[in-house]
Amino acid sequence: LSHCWGNTPFSACTLTRENEAEFTTAGIPITHLTNNFREAIDVARFIGVKFIWIDSLCIMQGEGGDFASEGDMMHAVYLNSYCNIVAADSRDSSSGLFQPREGEDKVGKEEWRGRRREAVPKQVLDEGLWGDELLGAPIYERGWVFQERMLSPRLLHFTDTQIFWDCSTLSACEAFPTGIPYHLDQHASIDRHWRARLQAASRSPSTSTSKDPPFPTPIGGPKDVSPETFWRTAVQKYTSCLLTNQLDKTVAIWSVAKLVRDLLPSTETYGGGMWSTRLEEQLAWRVEASEKSRRLGDLQTAWPSWSWAS
């Protein structure tokens, strides 16, 4: 599940050292779960999946937690998932996946039906359907979700207008169940292309088994785009998102960096959010828009000032 925690505490649905014994023996009453969790379980049951991974329940939170070790392995969770369920338009834990829907925008148009002229309703859709309606949803303001979107083999996005589907070969929605039309597919096709390449990178000969599903040759998107160019674009997208804890800045994109490393020559070196090849280009980053403020001391200590991570 990809979801926004929000500012409202939901301690009853957060694993800590204090409730670990209770959660792992007595369990958690379904009535104690948030709307996000209950409705995600409904979706998992509907598609026939018996298990669900939710970060606040599967990673120990608070004092004595294990996020330092588990956070570094989140890429493996999403890479090896069956399907990522996304509560896209839920800003907190209580809004749920199934949002109240407004009436569809339609316009009447007369057409000949045989010998009769009839008014036929036509649905009107924004040309920014994928980039605005989906990727502009609250969930994609979160920095951690960038890796969840790029690494998951399949995604079901629940927005307040419709459900979107995304994988390495098809991007679709309720309005276009057989696939997004070509002229609306710019954002989705590039993500599909790189999702397939990153999935393929994770299935190296040393890690793949006969049970691993075969990932198709990446289709859609520019095949001649280099991993360095993808990384530059990925950093631009990622740094436009928000992080509750700024010290997570390089951790939340490290999962993508690991797979990019597998696509690069073995001599490539990574550090501070940058690669050794074409380092001078990467040093030319700038802050696109920001209020004047002091750089956080913790980031200055952790990363050199010439890195975007600081």
Could you explain the architecture of this structure?
With 310 residues, this protein is an alpha+beta fold. The protein has one domain (19-100, 120-204, 217-286). Helix content is 31%, strand content 12%. It is built from twelve helices and eight strands. It has helices at 20-25, 35-46, 55-58, 67-70, 74-79, 129-134, 145-151, 186-202, 227-238, 251-263, 279-282, 297-302, and strands spanning 84-87, 106-113, 116-123, 154-158, 163-167, 171-173, 270-271, 274-275. The protein has a four-stranded mixed sheet with strand order 1-4-5-6, sandwiched between helices. Helix 9 runs antiparallel to helix 10. The longest helix is centred in the middle third of the chain and has 17 residues, at 186-202. It is globular. The chain starts with 19 loop residues before the first helix and ends in an 8-residue tail after the last helix. 27% of the residues are buried. Mean pLDDT is 80; it is low at 214-222. Pfam families: HET. Residues 201-211 have a biased composition (Polar residues). Residues 1-148 form the Heterokaryon incompatibility domain. This is HET-domain-containing protein. InterPro entries: HET.
